[in-house]
C-alpha cells in the first residue's frame, strides 16, 4: 500500500485548527510495512528522512480531500493516492474525486445499499480472519459473499469431529484437514474471483504476522489471550482497525448455565486497546505463549471445552460484519461511535460499551508503540524463529 496514509484521529477533529496540529502530530505514514513522519515544510523532508531512516511526507487536508507526497528511504518521491482515517467510518480522502465506478450486475442488490463506489471499495480491501472455527468460518462466508477482494485466513488447527455442527460447510471428509483449507474452499465457492492467502499457523508465527500487518481490517475470532496480544500489537503498531468477535457461555456458581453473552468489540488504532480494557490476562498469556510441548511438560491442563452453538456465533458475526460493512462504505451515522456491543440473549438485552484508555499505555498511545510499525516491539518478534 505505497502511497496510502493512515491518520489517527476523528473526522470531527480534523477540521478544528486547534486539534488539527495534534492529529498531524500523531499522523503516521504507512508505506508497505514501514512507517514515517509527517512534516509541515518540504525543506524538512531530507533532514528528517536522514535522521529517522523512515519515509517522510507532507499532507494538506480539507474537509473532503487530502493531497501530499512521500519521500521514501531510498530517496524516491511518490504522491499520495489516498488518506485513510480509521474512525467510526473508514474515511477515505483523495487529492481528486474517485473515478466513477460501475459494479458488476451480480452485486446489484448490494450496490443499491453501498453505492457502486462502496462495492468497489470492498473489492480493494484485504481482510484477515484470525481463527477459523465456529465464529471465523461464518465471518469468511459473509466477507466472501459481500465481495471483499482478498482474505487472509489464519488458523493452525485441523477440523475435529466435534467442530462439524458449527463449521460452516464442513463435511465428515474434512476431519483432520486444516481449517484453512475448509475456509478457502468456502470462500472460493462464494466468490470464484476472490484472492486468498492461507496461513495454517498460529498468529504469532512470523509468516502469519507478515501477512497480518499489510491488511486493511482484522477479524479476531480466536479465543486465546496470545491471539489477543498479537492482534492488539498489530492494530496499534501498524494502525489497522480490528473487530474481536466472541461468544461466552459461562457456568453459574450453582453449576447451571450462566449469563450467556456475545461480544463484538471494535479496536481502533490509538483508542483504548485490549490491554487498557482488561481483555488480556497476563497469567493466561504467560501460559499460552509457551510452545505446546513445554506446556505439556509443565503439566498444564487446558480447561474443559466450552459450550458452543451456531446461532450464538451467528448473532455475534452478524453484528461484527455489519459494522465492518457500514464502516467501509461510510454509512455509520457517527464517526465518533467506537463502542463495542454486548448481547445478553437470555435477558434479551443489548449494551454499548465505550473503550477505556490508560493514558500511559505501552501499546495504544503515542508515547508507546502507537504507529511505530517495523520499529515497534512486534518487529523483532517477526524475524525470530517460533513454534508452528
Ligand atoms: Zn492500551
Protein model, in words:
This protein is α/β, with parallel strands linked by helices and 388 residues long. It folds into two domains: 4-93, no CATH class; 105-383, NAD(P)-binding Rossmann-like Domain (Rossmann fold), CATH 3.40.50.720. The protein is built from twelve helices and 16 strands. The protein has helices at residues 11-14, 17-26, 44-52, 108-124, 136-146, 179-190, 206-212, 225-237, 282-288, 292-297, 310-328, 377-383, and strands at residues 4-6, 28-31, 34-38, 55-62, 65-71, 77-79, 82-86, 90-93, 126-130, 150-154, 195-199, 217-220, 242-248, 261-267, 340-344, 349-353. The strands form two sheets. It has an eight-stranded mixed β-sheet with strand order 6-5-4-3-2-1-7-8. It has an eight-stranded mixed β-sheet with strand order 11-10-9-12-13-14-15-16, sandwiched between helices. The radius of gyration is 21 Å and the shape is globular. It starts with a strand and ends in a 5-residue tail after the last helix. The relative contact order is 0.13. Mean pLDDT is 84; it is low at 8-34. Bound molecules: zinc ion (ZN). Zinc ion binds at residues 272-273, 275-276, 357-358, 361, 363-364. Zinc ion binds next to loops.
